[in-house]
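Note to self: keep these together.
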Amino acid sequence: MKLRRPETRTPPETIVALIDVVFFLLVFFMLIGRMDATAPFEVSPPVAASGRDMPGGGATVSVATAGALALDGAVLPRADLLALLEARLGETPDLLVRINAHGGARLRAVLPLAAEIEALGAADIVLVVTPEGG
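Structure:
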């Protein structure tokens, strides 16, 4: 009886090297790729003018936390405030309008107000902010 030696098998190919290559490619493309959506046109954000003195004159619209409005210190309903501003803008077209909103006021109360004031013809609208650390 003749015994045969079992045939030696070639070891299976390891895929560890392939996993390393895939990992490096993944990291490479993550580093060179942009993760945010690009705008279809150039966008230049506004520049804050903190540290400068507030320009004098004009009208100041105040917005309380609860949404109450005031024009130059007098509390008014929204319609009356806009009517008074429209009259003042008719007399002085280059009137500076400051919006002084409380830090706790909702943005959805401030932005539509700024849009309405702009629609009345205000050329310059300034949002009053507190500088960081102030």
